[in-house]
Design brief:
five-stranded mixed sheet, 0% helix, mainly beta, Thrombin, subunit H, 2 domains
Length: 162
């Protein structure tokens, strides 16, 4: 009697608020799966497998290489592999009490850097391309931060008209 292994690869991941998935794979015992490549765009994915006995680890990070499937029993196994993007990047948080901007690594929730600015930051915004961060300061200035080295590269004075 030939043993069969049914592998259902149900990948769920979020990009631009849309849910997408990979096609299911039905694989015979002893055969290889098709590799699964998650979408690019600088995003890394963690995945979990609810049936590691099929020859794939219970969890991993990144794309899933082709692997040889295993089924020790006589009934099909339906394995579900779910993927989720790993949070990455930096958050720039104004810390008015110390006249600084904290650079937080959002993957590890740790402070990567502390940037001293002109005066009490009351708002923070990033440029669309991510190369600059701007802080609106209580003194009526805007500090411009270069994100490649986390240094203040300019301070702009805002003149209010009445």
């Amino acid at each position: 009697m030939r043993r069969y292994l049914l592998v259902l690869l149900a990948f769920t991941f979020f990009l631009s608020s849309r849910v997408r998935g990979q096609a299911d794979q039905v694989v015979n015992n002893g055969d290889n799966t098709t590799a699964i490549n998650f979408p690019g765009g600088g995003c890394v994915y963690n995945w979990t497998n609810n049936h590691p006995e099929i020859g794939l680890a219970a969890s991993g990070t990144g794309n899933i290489n082709s692997f040889n499937v295993i089924n020790q029993g006589n009934t099909p196994i339906v394995a579900t592999i779910s993927g989720a993007p790993v949070t990455s990047g930096l958050a720039y948080i104004g810390n008015g009490g110390s006249n600084t901007v904290l650079v937080i690594d959002v993957a590890t929730n740790t402070i990567k850097s502390t940037i001293t600015i002109a005066d009490y930051p009351i708002g923070v915004a990033a440029s669309k391309d991510g190369t600059r961060v701007y802080t609106a300061n209580q003194s009526g200035t805007v500090s411009v931060i270069n994100t490649s080295n986390n240094a203040v590269v300019a301070t702009i004075t805002i003149t209010l008209f009445r």
